[in-house]
Amino acid sequence: MKSQGVIQMDKKYYKQEVDRYIRNNPSRLMTSRFTNTTKNENDMYKQSKKINGSLYCTPEPISCSVPFDTNVLVLEMNNDTNKIMAIGKVKNKPITGTINVYENRNYNRFIYAGQHHIKREDMNEEEDKIMRVFDVLCFTGNKHMKRGQGLKSFPGEMLYRMSSRIDIIDFITKMFERRTINTTTRIM
Q1: How deeply is 10 buried, as exposed, middle or buried, from its count of CB atoms within 10 A (0-12, 13-18, 19+)?
Q2: Would you call 111 exposed, middle or buried from its count of C-beta atoms within 10 A (0-12, 13-18, 19+)?
Q3: Which is the most buried residue in 7, 60, 77, 84, by most CB within 10 A?
Q4: By C-alpha distance, which of 129, 38, 136, 14 is closest to 83?
């Protein structure tokens, strides 16, 4: 039987390993919550300004635990349908200036934009399978991520535990890389 000190040491070591895993990743995985209404407002604004990439307007900045200028991979959650709609890629570098994407102007305070965005319907079978896993992780159970505003970090402990089977951040990063390569190839 383990003594209390050993169990606490194991927990401390585990937390250090999770923290190390997150710090050593070049990108961070975050979530953004939409309703059908806010998604429609976002899409209409992007269409009117001919924006093909990602656009996230939030009432608060990304957590200071995420280093400035870090790549941020964003799972776009739809709280009305309980589905991941898309994945975006932005930098933790808010854009200055004012834009009015949402009728509720509180959502328009901090703006993050990027050139990369992948809609769920444009994903292949393997990518969609991973999104179905995210549907369960983000919308169900006692650790669901439906609450909150702005861009919130995906739980590091979940990412660490999954990393023994699949490095999710690497998987999503490669999704964007494949599309960039394919776009470059088509242009040439």
Answers
A1: exposed
A2: middle
A3: 77
A4: 136
Q: Given the structure tokens 């585990």, which residue do they identify?
A: 14
How do 27-34 and 152-153 pair as beta strands?
antiparallel
pLDDT in tens, 5-43: 545 558 888 889 999 999 999 999 999 999 999 999 999
Residue 39 to residue 49: CA distance in whole angstroms: 15
CATH of span 25-187: 3.10.590
Helical pair 125-139 and 168-187, crossing angle rounded to 10 deg: 140
pTM: 0.88
> What is the DSSP secondary structure assignment for residue 16, as one 8-state letter?
H
Residues 6+ apart with CB under 8 A from 156: 18, 19, 21, 22
pLDDT digits (tens, 9 = 90+) for 135-174: 999 999 888 889 888 999 999 999 999 998 999 999 999 9
Secondary structure (DSSP) of 66-130: SPTT-EEEEEEEETTTTEEEEEEEEES-PBPS----SSSGGGGSEEEEESEEEEGGGS-HHHHHH
User: What is the spatial distance between Cα 28 and Cα 150, in angstroms, rounded to a whole number?
Assistant: 15
